[in-house]
Amino acid sequence: xxxxxxxxxxxxxxxxxxxxxxxxxxxxxxxxxxxxxxxxxxxxxxxxxxxxxxxxxxxxxxxxxxxxxxxxxxxxxxxxxxxxxxxxxxxxxxxxxxxxxxxxxxxxxxxxxxxxxxxxxxxxxxxxxx
Length: 130
What we know:
Residues 14-57 form the A9CJY8-like N-terminal domain. With 130 residues, the protein is of the alpha+beta class. The chain is 15% helix and 35% strand. β3 and β4 form a beta hairpin.
């Protein structure tokens, strides 16, 4: 599969990237019906979830949209995330990437979504909406 034959799905919701203290438990306010990601390190508990579910007192960066690389992707494939992020970097679009067992998710600030979709489409990627 060539990366130029890849399909990316634009998810409907707005997302937030939240930072909690490393000793905190995974909170119950996460909307588990939609895409979410939890990463725990020695320094932090990082949560990506729908923006509307985040309480106002939580440290977070909001207004992210998410492009899912439609998978599953084989572990032997090389450079997929690099290729997509290069197209976006050439347009001065910042990303926040999350990888799972099956695929990659690329978060893009809401104000950059149209520009990102246009750039990726011009570069041969197929973009579909959820």
